[in-house]
Amino acid sequence: MISLHSIAGGKRAVLLLLALLITALLLLPESRQEPVLALGRHMAAAVSIPLRALEWVNQGIDGMWARYGTLQHVREENFTLRQEIARLRQENTRMHETAAASTRLRDLLELKERLPYPTVSAQVVGRDPSNWYRSIVINKGAGDGLAVDMGVVTPAGIIGRIVKAYDRFAIVLLLIDPNNAVTGLVQRTRDEGIVEGTEKGLTRIKYLPLLSTVKVGDQVVTSGLAGGFPRGLPIGTITKIERREAELFLSAEIVPDTDFAKIEEVLVVTSPRESTQLPPMPFPLQPPARRDAGDQR
Amino acid sequence: MKVAAYVALVLLVIPIQIVLLDRISIAGIRPDLALVTVCLIGLYRGEMETVLAGLAMGFAQDLFSGGALWGNLCLKPVLGLMAGLARRNLVNLTWAFVLTLMLGLSLLSGSVMYLLKSFAGSGASFFLAARGIILPQACYDAILGLAALKLIRLWKPRRTPLTAFTYE
Fold it and tell me: Under an 8 A CB cutoff, do B64 and A171 touch?
């Protein structure tokens, strides 16, 4: 505590004088206080500089705090939204899958209703356990009335025939397997031949007459003469004609109408001879899938 | 107990091969899980067990295959037997050994399957078959074999196959 006794005599007098002066100034009427106020304005201006700086710092701290709070909130919101997105994606995928399945099943049902032959619908549950044969496993078998050599079709066309039938499963050898062969007919020229699979995963029609006017783009259908298929089911489109010298017959490469890599549901024709009716035309309920040969294994 | 375990193994491996392996196929080529399993049984359990397991797995595989031949029924026990015999001369089961063995046995299996298919009449050129099926499948089988070995070692780290020194 500062005591006036500790201050030297001269200084004490100055301090007393200043106190008296300030008291006198305060006692002056307001109109006479202008010089003091002017001094105060300058001082305030000088003080305002660090004040603004401090205010800026303070605002910065406030902003940081607010951002931190917001970030915390955003993080929680982000987490919630991510969960929501994941859930919606799953739901979307499920709905897409359901929509695709319902389209496929509707096509299959329409085909089943339109085919004038008894059929059994089945689902593909597996593929050949080796890479050497192109076959599929379906979830219907001898217990459901299926037997060896019955033809198997999809809305796009024929896909193969049953080679093994167990009680609850059957093995379908696909049309693109070189061990498979069905009788085919070029729809435009009515030339008959044998359709068999190739190593490239396509099919080929053999034994066409040498004088046949078959051309690229012609549709090939089943002839119904032999095997488990009725007449008129689509097989594929001719893409290349092979004329070899010294051969008595023509052969042609066919791109099948069915995408063999994406078969999920099929119809098995259990009795192709039961009806004499031809299948309704146009047969394919969906446009034939076109793809490269490499996709067909 | 052991018989039940092998039955369970067959009932597990073949359905996986038929239903699930298509999901991991590369360019349409799937590994032969039955071959890998039989070879690992040969390496870990000996000739007799691998021959019996190979017979069961080969038979089950042929049942669900589109082929008319009983190729797998004949091949799988022989491949397992070869793995079992290789184990006799083995001191340490190294990664390189398993890789080479799986690759070799799968190449052999693929070549024999090609020959069987050729005899049946559906012959493509060997070059095409080797490039398209035999070689890629052998590589895939070898990688799968290594992965299976890794899993076995994680599961039972101290379990090593009988070696030339311990085999009775």
Answer: yes
Q: Report yes or no: B123 and A199 within 8 Å, Cβ to Cβ.
A: no
Q: Give this complex's ipTM.
A: 0.79
Give the CB-side neighbour count of residue A175, counting CA atoms within 13 A: 35
CA distance A70 to chain B (A): 45
Q: What is the mean pLDDT of residues B140-163?
A: 77
Tens digits of residue pLDDT in A172-197: 999 998 888 888 889 888 888 999 88
**Which residues on A lie below 8 Å from B34 (Cβ)?**
129
Which range has highest mean pLDDT (A102-106, B5-9, B136-140)?
B136-140
Match 């049953």 to its residue by tokens: A162
How many other CB atoms are there within 10 angstroms of residue B129's CB atom? 22
Could you identify the residue written with the tokens 């009988």? B162
Nearest Cα of chain A lies from the Cα of B124 at a distance, in angstroms, of 7
pLDDT at A272: 66
Rounded-to-integer distance, Cα A133 and Cα B34, Å: 16
Report the candidate in B107, B109, B108, B99 with the shortest Cα–Cα distance to residue B150: B99
Residue A143: partners with Cβ closer than 8 Å, 6 or more residues away: A167, A168
CA angle A147, A152, A154 (to 5 degrees): 155
Shortest CA gap A57–chain B (Å): 58
d(CA B14, CA B32): 10
| Nearest in space to B111 (alpha carbons), one of B84, B132, B129 | B129
How is residue B87 written in tokens?
């184990």
Long-range own/partner contacts, residues A87-92 (CB < 8 A, 24 or more apart): none
Nearest C-alpha in B relative to A134: B66
Q: Does residue B61 belong to the interface with chain A, where contact is any CB pair within 8 Å?
A: yes
For chains A and B, CB pairs below 8 A equal 85
**DSSP-assigned letter for residue B26:** B
Chain A residues with CB-CB distance to B27 below 8 A: 294, 297
- pLDDT at position A172 is 93
Q: Is the pLDDT of residue A294 over 60?
A: no
User: Would the CB atoms of B66 and A128 count as touching at under 8 Å?
Assistant: yes
The whole-model pTM stands at: 0.69
Determine the pLDDT at residue A297: 38
Take residue A220 and report the two structure tokens written for it.
């090939």
Rounded distance between C-alpha atoms, residue B40 and residue B26, angstroms = 23
Number of C-beta neighbours around residue A155 at 10 A:
24
